[in-house]
Amino acid sequence: MVAADEHYASLGIDERNLFTIEQVAARTGLTKRTLRYYEEVGLLPPTDRTEGNYRRYSEEDIQRLQRIKNLRDLLGFSLAVDSSRCVQGFWQSSNVINIHVRSY
Three-class SS of residue 13? Predict the structure, then answer.
């Protein structure tokens, strides 16, 4: 685990501030399957992994997931493959999510 500790330290991330997929699912109200799906379709960047290949999420990842969830709820549809590509492009071309979150 020393290699993982060094990796996180080089990124300025304290490993104690990383969360398991179960913890993130509980905090966000999203399922583990949804978290994996969002990573698969590119809505969430690939997460760091432990030596055992378990996903580890940062606080920044959790905040991004909250914004994705807020946008999904705002737009009123589930993020199926086609719509997730649309949302991803929309997100990348503007800061609509950040603007929406600030309006709360």
Answer: coil
Cα–Cα–Cα angle for 104, 28, 80, nearest 5°?
A: 90
Q: Taking the model in full, what pTM does it have?
A: 0.63
Residue 35: how many CB atoms within 10 A of its CB? 22
What is the rounded CA–CA span in Å between residue 9 and residue 94? 31
| Rounded average pLDDT per 10-residue block, the chain, 104 residues | 49 73 95 93 87 92 91 72 52 51 51
Plot region of 29 (φ>0 → left; ψ -120 to 50 → alpha; else → beta): left
Residue 44 DSSP one-character state: S
Q: How many CB atoms lie within 10 A of CB 61?
A: 22
Set out the domains of the chain in order of their start, with CATH numbers.
2-102 (1.10.1660.10)
Q: Is residue 57 a contact partner of residue 28, using CB atoms and an 8 Å limit?
A: no
